[in-house]
């Protein structure tokens, strides 16, 4: 009865998350009997000015859209804000997270946005089952940016439903297949990922391999292989260098729609990379400079994204930042510059 009352209290507190800044402090409650529940996330408010001939869609996705002529736009939004819950019971952990990129709403009256599921998985000892970042990714190698995820054209950036097994530095996964550009209705084999993580006081580097069986629009089966090397290396003081390199038939796993898995009856081949350096000016202020690029063989795409930013923590939980950058589609002779301001309150 005592644990039931605690769980009821936590549930009631959880309903208040998002009502006000004061109600959004992250907290963990020990329910007893080796059970814990934790709420987390952040509130993020962005203002962005864009000028150029590439259309902006919430964040710089690899496909972009070329405008008939140069245009300028200023928008403010809060839909990157997110909330998550972690429940632990002994060796079992459940995690669920959502943000508000689910579409809906309007800017005439309410600016409402639908919630969207990001992560939902169960982890028991060394086995994870559910939806989360693909095992092909190294999340520590993502640049710190004001723009959502930054130079995604050069990053592995996919969430998949999967079954993952971790054994020391090794990770193996069977992940949800999708023949992007082909006929996904005939996908019969899961994607296979194997990754080895090198770790030390110096940082970490991961080497990953990807194998898939893709299905073309004519229902022909094609094999696809890809490799990735990514990491975060500590330099001087608190500074760090982050990088990613991907090549082969990585398709939808890299670049956020910059490359399809299949172009007609051919398997797409791409090469992409991202580099970022983060420098701490002092304990409260830091900057990152980043660049990402992807090129493809079959579709002849050439997309790049660079940016420079500065963030200052006014409290341990509250940070304000500004970023200037550019997104370019060299294959279509199109480019846009942007200036973004962000306020982020971590719960």
TrEMBL record:
Signal peptide feature range: 1-25
InterPro entries the UniProt entry points to: DcaP
Top-level taxon: Bacteria
Keywords: Signal
Stated name of the protein: Porin
Source species of the chain: Psychrosphaera haliotis
């Amino acid at each position: 009865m005592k644990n039931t009352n605690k769980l009821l209290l936590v549930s009631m507190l959880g309903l208040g998350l998002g009502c006000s800044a004061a109600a959004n402090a992250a907290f963990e409650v020990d329910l007893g009997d080796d059970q814990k529940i934790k709420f987390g996330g952040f509130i993020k408010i962005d203002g962005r000015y864009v000028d150029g001939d590439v259309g902006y869609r919430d964040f710089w996705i690899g496909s972009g859209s070329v405008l008939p002529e140069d245009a300028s736009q200023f928008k403010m939004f809060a839909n990157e804000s997110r909330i998550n819950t972690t429940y632990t019971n002994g060796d079992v952990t459940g995690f669920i997270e959502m943000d508000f990129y689910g579409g809906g709403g309007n800017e005439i009256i309410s600016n409402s946005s639908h919630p969207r599921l990001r992560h939902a998985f169960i982890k028991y000892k060394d086995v994870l089952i559910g939806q989360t970042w693909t095992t092909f990714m190294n999340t520590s190698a993502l640049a710190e940016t004001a723009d959502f995820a930054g130079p995604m054209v050069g990053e592995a950036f996919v969430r998949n439903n999967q079954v993952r097994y971790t054994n020391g530095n090794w990770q193996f996964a069977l992940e949800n297949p999708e023949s992007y550009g082909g006929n996904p209705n005939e996908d019969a084999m899961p994607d296979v990922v194997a990754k080895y993580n090198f770790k030390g006081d110096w940082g970490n580097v991961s080497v990953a391999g990807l194998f898939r069986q893709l299905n073309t629009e004519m229902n022909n089966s094609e094999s696809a292989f890809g490799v990735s090397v990514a990491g975060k290396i500590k330099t001087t003081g608190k500074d760090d260098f982050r990088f990613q390199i991907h090549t082969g038939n990585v398709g939808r796993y890299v670049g956020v729609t910059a490359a399809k898995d299949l172009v007609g009856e051919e398997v797409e081949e791409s090469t992409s990379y991202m580099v970022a350096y983060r420098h701490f000016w002092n304990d409260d202020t830091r900057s990152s400079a980043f660049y990402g690029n992807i090129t493809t063989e079959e579709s002849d795409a050439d997309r790049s994204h660079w940016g420079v930013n500065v963030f200052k923590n006014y409290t341990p939980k509250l940070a304000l930042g500004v970023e200037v950058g550019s997104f370019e589609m060299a294959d279509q002779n199109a480019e846009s510059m942007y200036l973004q301001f962000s306020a982020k309150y971590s719960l």
